[in-house]
Sequence to fold (328 residues):
Amino acid sequence: MPAMLGQSAAFEQTRALLHRYAGCDVQVLIEGETGTGKELAAREIHYASSRRERPFVPVNCGALPDNLIENELFGHERGAYTDARHAQPGLIDRARGGTLFLDEVDSLSSKAQVTLLRFLENNEYRPVGGGAARVSSARIVAATNASLEAQVVAGHFRRDLQYRLNALYVRMPPLRERKSDIPLLAEYFLGRVAERMGGQAKAWTDEALKLLEAHAWPGNVRELENAVLRAYLGAEGAVIGASVLEALVTPASVAPTSAAASVALNDANLPYVCAKQNAVSAFERSYLLGLMTRAAGNISAAARLSGTERRQLGKLLKKHGIETNAFR
Fold:
């Protein structure tokens, strides 16, 4: 299981809360900005609980097709519809005795919200085309990068479903609230990149680490991980200095505060910044081309090889104009 890493007070308080909730067998709602580690938090709850030997089933609610929501969640019996030649279990069955993690739960359609609410009322469900009701033993943990309360007030999310999901609540702290964890995470990600790419081990200078700590990290841990990858690729030697990072991150303390300041800063550093960005982009494209060659154009396989989220890898491929069909 991927580990949650941190030693700051904010991190330790959150982790202690997750472990307390692991012993309470009810729904948990996890809220936090993009990249704060909500799925890792859900896994922490699961693997610290008595359910640890049972499945952890993650679901991206935004990818659930509205017209097949019951089929996806509850499965179907043989003959339920024309192409149903065999019975197929749903996500709830796959999570039997374990944890069903509903990520991006705020993206559920109105129909899907009603379906989920009906299930949560008594944990009963029927497969499509099925007869007798079944009772689920799966625990539900939901996550969102939006405020469900704000979504309810705006009329986009059902209040009664919010109550069902929010029996226990966790807010994941953004990286800017756990600054002392940045060096630890930067070292960890740097080691992972070297291992993943089969390259030489590299180290940060003190100035580079200070620059990382000074950045605001609006994309949180995920943004830091991406910055470490680019820094590794952009550094020619075994030491990564601040000069490599300056083109990748802007310290919060010196970020431009006005349009005029922004123009002045860009004019002064444009040749240097462009050169660095071009070098990093070239390294990044070269790595992606090699990765897709090894994976024969299969994005899912490439994501597993690189330890990257499939969606994030897809965005990088699109950014560099790399077509997967060329590798098949």
Summary: The chain has 14 helices and eleven strands. The radius of gyration is 23 Å.
